[in-house]
Design a protein that fits this description.
The protein starts with 7 loop residues before the first helix and ends with a helix. It has 82 residues and is α+β, with helices and mostly antiparallel strands. A three-stranded antiparallel sheet has the order 1-3-2. It has one domain (8-81): Orthogonal Bundle (Arc Repressor Mutant, subunit A). It is built from four helices and three strands, in the order αβααββα.
Length: 82
């Protein structure tokens, strides 16, 4: 991947994802940290993050949960700026 210049918000989002091995839901990233859906979409589009689908138990039911997770390219982008 070519050198990537990360904005402050992209770097902050990737750092949060780096510290969440299973990923975080988009809702948690947006509501809890103030990120926009455009920022998250851009990270996924640029290959720095990915959406993975899993299941969780809630109220005795199994539900589908989408999580945003950092990719190897995202880790490389953070390391390249460090």
């Amino acid at each position: 991947m070519a050198d990537v210049h990360l904005s402050t918000e992209q770097r902050r989002a990737l750092c949060l994802l780096l510290n969440a091995p299973r990923g975080l839901t988009a809702v948690a990233l947006m509501r809890g940290n103030g990120f926009t859906s455009d920022l998250l979409t851009g990270l996924v589009r640029d290959g720095l993050a990915e959406v993975v689908t899993g299941t969780a138990r809630a109220g005795g039911r199994t539900i589908q949960v989408d999580r945003v997770r950092i990719t190897e390219a995202g880790r490389d982008a953070l390391a390249g700026e460090g």
